[in-house]
Amino acid sequence: MSMEQVLLDIQRQWFGTHFEYLQSNHEGVLIDRLQEAATETDLSGIVINAGGYAHTSVALRDAVEYVMQQNIPVVDVHISDIRSREVFRQPELLTDVCALTIIGHGINGYKEAVDYIVHLDR
After folding, report:
1. For 108, which of 36, 49, 74, 78 is 20 to 30 Å away at the CA?
2. Domain count, the chain
3. Domain residues for 29?
4. Tens digits of per-residue pLDDT, 39-76?
5. What are the residues facing 101 on neighbouring strands?
6. pLDDT the model gives residue 122
7. In this structure, what CATH number is given to the domain that contains residue 92?
8. Mean pLDDT of the chain
9. Mean pLDDT of 20-26
10. What separation in angstroms does the CA of 113 have from each of 87, 107, 120?
């Protein structure tokens, strides 16, 4: 299932809620968007799958921490169970600065993350 299909499913499940989707293989693009998001007053939360950057990027971690300091919850999603993968994938730099980390629930992790944020916003 593509991310576009996952997003369509999420939009159907939470009809009337606005979602924005960004995918980039460039660390700086992700950091820039997180910094922009920190200034948005109508943002309920962020779901992030940082891929390999979750294991390596202190800069991305700092950006996520800054967003959280602005009272915008960030949920970290890993499709696979990183705890059962290669040793270098097991350290996770985002977990301690995120509101929630979902590991190994497949693409359903995205829906769980949105559900968490939607219920926080009530």
Report:
1. 36
2. 1
3. 3-120
4. 998 899 999 999 999 999 999 999 999 999 999 999 99
5. 76
6. 52
7. 3.40.50.9100
8. 92
9. 92
10. 25, 10, 11
